[in-house]
Design brief:
about 600 residues; Myeloperoxidase, subunit C; three-stranded antiparallel beta sheet; peroxidase; metal-binding; iron
């Protein structure tokens, strides 16, 4: 009886701030940026962003707590308003400070935040090596630019395909390009996060949450587990040497729960439970109340919005929900049209190779489509001063989440290539962190050209661009910035035969006399059959200054003896060896996601 009385007590609920749209409708405010911009690392306000910066070497603040042990630093401590979002059994204990104040909600989030802050500082260091003349501001801003692009790439290359499945990804245009730039940007798309997404659909992950978090050794042996209710807003285990790696390996080995209408009591009875209390809050109740507070329409209305069969009777629900679930909802709701979006959405039977049902798939896919097409700074876009060069873009496309984890963990030895899926011996077997399957970024492509030559006018966004003059006998000069060659490329003969050329800017006839010498001798190798396409891998070495760099060679056609080819060539600044891998390794999605899947979505 005591338990019943305790559980029957009303929960406190904080109503969100509201704002008025231009057409005078009331909406709830979103304190975070809508776009996928790594705001969990940098914050969503200039004040917080400044507070997180070291202002030295482009780095973010960290706590070198275990430097003497050879371990990497932790997040800085939150010393201002330390009790906000933090349960402190002792006054000398502090939680962590990060770009998102939810970093301390659960220890797994603290692990991920720490790893991505380390990644920022690692990238900043790499950029400082290739550009030692860069200021702190240049290093910070370009590192932020790169890391935001990496998060976008991982989200659409690893997370969303596992969540939505291939068919939904194709239907909503969510698949990434393998080469070149994207032309999907539409300035008229509003990328504001809809309430149905934030308060219902993207909370599907609460069903995946296990009751405890496991620690595993770096040799993938189980050590121990701890209930989530003991760690909410208490991330103090990260202050123990080596435990961050143990929790990380635990997430890589611990399976997420299946997607259904069941949620662990760790978040329905013990959410944010104080150490001296017997119970905490109920996350499921909060989800329902928040959606109602926001005025989110019913499950039935969203099915209509998504062009799905209507829900008019309880029997019509049997096509989307399990029989036992429908019978339970009949006891809770008077009519099927009254079903809350979140409760019915998490109960839907998953479609195809998706983790979720059709209604949540529709809402989530539409939102991520708008986030991609409506983002002026989307990493695949071209034509902007912030756009990556084609070579830089190809480097970002190499990155997997597993590479980031290997680079920033303390002593991680092996990992499955697809970190959001459980390891297995067939399509996702563990490999060494030094494996060539886990490619990293070559930051030489960010090297800025320092040249006092007045003709070298193109900035360092592309390290291979150099405008060098040729001299005619009279001594006049003309800058050759771009050379376009057309011709045939023969893989069997390893040769490129130019048939026509043009120069930009064109030389003003009749002078000066512009001459360009082309030296091209690639080594060709073919992709093995396990790759998703039979495209060409090109490694080319060029002479400095006199020769030209071919930016890209790729084809989606079957391998033939001869290809028609046209490319823009740029003079390099020095001898360079460039390797392009032009196909992504294909992997069959696993039936079970690692618990890492849930914690990654919590950061987005």
């Amino acid at each position: 009886m005591r338990e019943d009385r305790e559980m029957a007590k009303a929960q406190s609920y904080n109503r969100p701030w509201s704002a008025i749209r231009s057409e005078c409708s009331r909406v709830q405010t979103n304190s975070l940026t809508s776009y996928i911009d790594a705001n969990f690392v940098y914050g969503s306000s200039p004040t917080l962003a400044a507070k997180l910066r070291e202002y030295r070497g482009g780095c973010l603040k960290v706590l070198p707590q275990f430097k003497d042990l050879g371990l990497k630093p932790l997040l800085p401590l939150k010393t201002e308003q330390p009790d906000d979002g933090c349960i402190r059994p002792h006054r000398d204990l502090y939680c962590f400070l990060a770009g998102d104040n939810r970093v301390n909600e659960q220890l797994a989030l603290g692990v991920l935040h720490t790893l991505f802050v380390r990644e920022h500082n690692r990238i900043a260091h790499e950029l400082s090596v290739v550009n030692p003349h860069w200021s702190d501001e240049q290093l910070y801003q370009e590192t932020r630019h790169i890391l935001a692009a990496i998060v976008q790439h991982i989200t659409y290359n690893e997370f969303l395909p596992r969540l939505l499945g291939k068919q939904t990804m194709q239907k909503y245009g969510l698949e990434l390009k393998h080469y070149g730039y994207s032309d999907d940007y539409d300035p008229y798309i509003d990328a504001t996060i809809p309430s149905a997404f934030g308060t219902a659909a993207f909370r599907f992950g609460h069903s995946l949450l296990p009751k405890s978090m496991e620690r595993w050794s770096v040799t993938n042996k189980f050590i121990a587990s701890r209930r989530f209710s003991e760690m909410f807003q208490q991330p103090y285990d990260l202050n123990k040497p080596g435990w961050l790696d143990q929790y990380l390996v635990g997430m890589l080995n611990q399976a997420a729960l299946p997607m259904d209408d069941a949620i662990t009591t760790q978040v329905t009875n013990h959410l944010f439970q104080e150490p001296t209390h017997e119970y905490g809050k109920d996350l499921a109740s909060i989800n329902l109340q928040r959606a109602r507070e926001h005025g989110v329409p019913s499950y039935s209305e969203y099915r209509e919005f998504c062009n799905l069969p209507p829900v008019n009777t309880w029997t019509s629900l049997l096509k989307s929900l399990d029989n036992s679930t429908v019978h339970r909802y009949q006891d809770l709701y008077s009519f099927p049209q009254d079903l809350d979006l979140w409760s019915a959405g998490v109960s839907e039977i998953p479609i195809g190779d998706s983790l979720i049902g059709p209604t949540f798939s529709c809402i989530i896919a539409r939102t991520f489509r708008d986030l991609k097409r409506g983002d002026r700074f989307w990493y695949e876009n071209s034509g902007s001063p912030s756009s990556f060069s084609l070579a830089q873009l190809q480097e970002i496309r190499k990155v997997k989440l597993s590479r980031i984890l290997c680079d920033n963990a303390d002593d991680l030895i092996t990992i499955q290539p697809w970190a959001l899926e459980m390891p297995n011996d067939y399509t996702n077997s563990r490999v060494s962190c030094n494996s060539r399957l886990l490619e990293g970024i070559n930051f030489a492509h960010w090297r800025e050209i320092q040249d006092r030559d007045p003709w070298a006018k193109i900035p360092a966004a592309d390290p291979w661009v150099s405008a060098r003059p040729s001299y005619d006998p009279s001594g006049s000069t003309h800058p050759v910035e771009l050379v376009t060659l057309s011709g045939q490329y023969k893989p069997t003969a390893s040769s490129f035969i130019p048939s026509a050329s043009s120069y930009s800017p064109p030389p003003p006839p009749p002078r000066p006399n512009v001459q360009v010498e082309v030296s091209y001798s690639p080594q060709i190798s073919y992709k093995p059959l396990e790759f998703s396409s039979n495209e060409i891998n090109v490694t080319s070495t060029y002479k400095p200054l006199e020769s030209l760099f071919i930016q890209q060679i790729s084809t989606k056609k079957p391998l033939l003896d001869t290809y028609s080819y046209s490319s823009t060539l740029r003079p390099p600044s020095s001898t360079s060896t460039v390797s392009y891998t032009s196909a992504e390794f294909s992997s069959t999605p696993m039936l079970v996601s690692s618990s890492f899947f849930f914690f990654f979505l919590k950061m987005l």
